[in-house]
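[job 4417] fold queue: 2 targets
>>> target A
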Amino acid sequence: MDLIVATDRGLYCATGDFHIDPWRPVARAVITHGHSDHARFGSEVYICHRDTAPILRKRLGDVAIETAAYGEVLTREGVELSLHPAGHVLGSAQVRVAHRGDVWVASGDYKLENDGVSAAFEPQRCHVFITESTFGLPIYHWRPQAEIIASVDAWWRENAAAGRASVLYAYALGKAQRVLAHVDAAIGPIVCHGAIEGFNAIARAAGVALPPTRIASEMGTKAEFGRALILAPPSAASSPWLNRFGDYSDALASGWMQVRGNRRRRSLDRGFVLSDHADWPGLLAAIEATGAERVFATHGSVGPLTRYLQERGLDAQALATAYGEEDDTAEGGPSPESAA
């Protein structure tokens, strides 16, 4: 009997009677991270990492939450449940489930590069690994974060020298804080959309070092905007909110920018390939590090990834889920038409 199975409500551990990232209301929901496709309203109790709790309260309101530190073991009906760093966004976790020597790990979303904001990914040895496959194609290879951030800084400096605002679209939870933590704040003021600023406050309260930021109404003249880096969710593109900034150059920070056609379709001036998901080599490295004999792939390029793993002797299968449809006003969603 499989320890975790897919049901019409989400991934379910019958032995421990809990769901992982359910997409319908359940009694006990173990949450890997706070993005809207993994943490949905209506469950009776939410179990998550302590840094995810304020994110859930911001998004879901006054819900019942139980928290755990990374590595802390919770026991329910003989099942050992623990959370381990996924490196995706603040508080993100892989869920390790063990019972009578059988160990399963549900990864949620993850990336291998340490972004300096979320706790760095820690592979967990297991028999069965449930992996995301958002960028599960060989074309996706990420450059080092420092290199991408240097390109963002250079673009911002060039715009500031010309008196032109720099509007960078980035998801409010995760990507925005990652950019903020590493850009050169000496270039000019940093303005954040309200959807981003709320998550900035949560990150700062969790101990993440971010430079000072302002909202648009706290700025003065359009000349001051001309030196600014303005962070906004992708949903703000072409909205009236942008009119106050005068002349601006716009860009998107996303793994989907690896494909040039995505940038052209969005009519962007620039695209920075920066993703909070693992690239193709990252997925393969993570899977290998688990030592898993069986692999289930969810949301993304499931077919190519499972076929590749099967050709290399692994028992790899697709696992149907309802992940990957996030609201980019607050979190963003991994689809080629939006960004991740």
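>>> target B
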Amino acid sequence: MAFLIAAFTGFAQNSLDGSIRNLGKSKVYLMSIYGERTKVSDSAISDSLGRIHYTLPTGLAPGLYRIGWSKTGFINLILNRENVKFETWATSPEDSLKILSSLENSLFRSFFLMGKTSQMKLELLMPIVDFYPVRDEFYSKAVSEFETIQKNQLNFLDSTSKKYPFSFAVRMEKVSQTPYISPSLPPSSRMEYLKQHYWDKIDFSDTAMLRTNVFADKIISYLAIYQNNRMNQKQLETEFIKAVTVALGAASVNADVYKFMLDYMVGGFDKYHFDEVITYIADNFQDPFSCEDAARKSALQKKLDNFKKLSIGKTAPAIEVADIKGNNINLLSLKNEFTLLVFWSSQCPHCTELMPKLKAWYDKQKPKRLEVMAVSLDTSRNDWSSFIKKEKLNWINVSELKGYFGKAEDEYNIYATPTIYLIDREKKIIAKPITWRELEQALSENVK
């Protein structure tokens, strides 16, 4: 069965053959990769021995692709105008993977295995380099080994790059490679060196790398340099703002990569509610392809513009949504001293845990200073109304029954539930709690 993938200028028609042992007959998907996003291109049924064969379309766009048969059962392979043969085990696909035919994937596999082993060794040696007595003979050996491991990685990349200068695997490894760290640098200087030089040798003009996960992985690794377990949310946000400035500054030489990194980081920081970082990004960066005409703005630029409107101290955007009886409720018309705007869903486990706790707090108010406007992202009226009746949610319940695609959800950049805004009488946003503990604290500090 041929995979139905968008055509790209090319010449030869190639094949993909694999043996996935212990799989048996099963649906196997081919997925293109873009950052952390995968998109199913086609599927096929393996035979009783777990064997698959595909004839790839002429001109398949070179990139990293995923062959997957379950949530945890998959391998990533480079498809770049060559025949590919592999074998693996269904239960441990990555560890048991063998490349039988494919220069690109043989190189890709070599880089992966060498990097995995080197990283493990460096992590074991790092405490010795940092804390072992300097005058001890073993310290000198550890330092020498620390240098050798890094140099071997760099030399292998350099020699492979000279031999196969146009290899897709080599180009991926050049993005993934971590800068050489001298063991003579103290720990604090080492981190500062990495922060400033992490992006030095990246070829941002190679936009084919966007059809892989290397830039997404690079961003995650870079952000990890800026954090430690002792930091609170505020401190993390301060550090991440520094990271964003360096990373986006480096990527600004290419609009396509810059937009990918901007969009990826905004999505990640939004998911974990790093609101100050998002507000900083919205104030200082913009989609390079965005048009000034508001009607033609990109989705990314609209998201950034909305984040500016949703920071603490700003007036809450006006929304009007029908309640369970069909009456339109306007947020700005509510007269209570405080309003808690909650975006939730009866299908969200975190929401169904939160709502009963909030209900108990809400009912204890004397006098009632705060009203709750609960905007459901349900698409089933029955699911929505059943949960309301079951938990006796006697506040304002509204929904467009459009999931994440309602006007209210778009106005408030809703990408996860629950999302909560505490609003004062003047309809200013005064808190954006994430957890029940944070919500309790916000309520105790403001709704006394």
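[job 4417] complete. Note on B: The longest helix spans residues 103-131.
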